[in-house]
Amino acid sequence: MGYEGLRTLTGMPTVYLNHGRGTNSTANTERYDLLKTLSEKNIPMTTPCCNSASGPDGLISGHAYTLLDVLQLSTGTKLAKVRNPWS
Fold first, then answer.
1. Which letter, b or e, does each residue of 35-61 get, where b requires 16 or more Cβ atoms within 10 Å of its Cβ?
2. pLDDT tens track for 49-69
3. What is the 3-state secondary structure (H, E, C) of 10-27?
4. CA separation, residue 58 to residues 49, 52, 84 (Å)
5. Model confidence over 6-53: pLDDT tens digits?
6. Rounded to whole angstroms, what are the CA distances from 38 to 34, 41, 44, 65, 74?
7. What domain range includes position 64?
8. Other CB atoms closer than 10 Å to residue 10's CB: what's the count?
9. Within 13 Å, how many C-alpha atoms sit on residue 33's CB side?
10. CB 70 within 8 A of CB 39
11. How many structural domains compose the chain?
12. How far apart are CA 65 and CA 75, in angstroms?
């Protein structure tokens, strides 16, 4: 898991947050708000991708990515900015 590697690299305590796959709009808003707050505080975060054979837009299923930022467009669309640590 990505958080174990982060703990090994930094020596800092880490927390694993399981957000599940709920489609409840309130839960989704709370998740986004939490990630936005952590991002604004420059808290290091990682995220896995996908649970299917192939991920969207070239993302690799089961691979850990660095979560750099989350943002909301004026259209209301919410995006996550991720980085592949393997380039």
1. beebbeeeeebbbebeeeeebeeeeee
2. 776 666 667 777 778 888 899
3. HCCCCCCCCCCCCCCHHH
4. 11, 13, 11
5. 788 888 778 777 766 656 677 778 888 988 998 998 888 888 777 666
6. 6, 5, 8, 16, 21
7. 2-83
8. 10
9. 6
10. yes
11. 1
12. 26
Question: Quick one: tokens of 42?
Answer: 């420059």
**Which amino acid would we find at residue 20?**
G
Q: Is the pLDDT of residue 5 over 80?
A: no
Tokens of 19: 């957000």
Tokens found for residue 30 = 């709370």
How far, in Å, CA of 59 to CA of 50, rounded? 8
